[in-house]
Request: fold
Amino acid sequence: MSEISSNSIQPILNLQDNCSDFYKKINEKYSAHMNCKQGCASCCFVNLSIFQAEAYRILVWIFSLESDKKQELLEVLKQPMQAKEKNFQNKLTSPCVFLRNNSCSIYEARPTICRTQGLPLQYKQADKENNIQITVDHCPLNFLDQDSFPNKNDWLDLDRLNTLQSIAENFFVKNFPKNKSKIQLQVDNNQRVSLVSLQKEILKILENEV
Reply:
């Protein structure tokens, strides 16, 4: 997998690092008003699909682990999945396939969306008259106190992030040496990889490696 990590996934690596840095800055600034912490997994009760670049970024991370860490990850992923719970939208939902004991088993390589959960997210939306409005969304567990909501300079522009994600994905697709890789992940009609299928592939890889 070295040929992937050295080139085609570099844009997604940079983008995810930037997202993590931005989250850290906002979390430190508004820590008194954010409930995001170890053990809070309300936003992890979802069924996600991710860009191919993100999926291979996770695989690169797994291949970089020491043997004992691979063994630990394999044992974690073999554990029974958590029961359904109500997510932050109060909907009874199955957990992410990588969630165990309310903790992410691939946290260091987690997808971009997981790095932005809890932040104030700004995006454009058309109203009934088709006028474009700026909408801001956030986890309902955060910013509960009056006058605690971050100012506009601390909102994450979701439209811009999605554009940068698409650029990183296009770079990956263009530069990924498919003829050299032994692993070909299953993609859906939108050319995305479901975390369910990715977890199955990771289990196969780990079982063969450890």
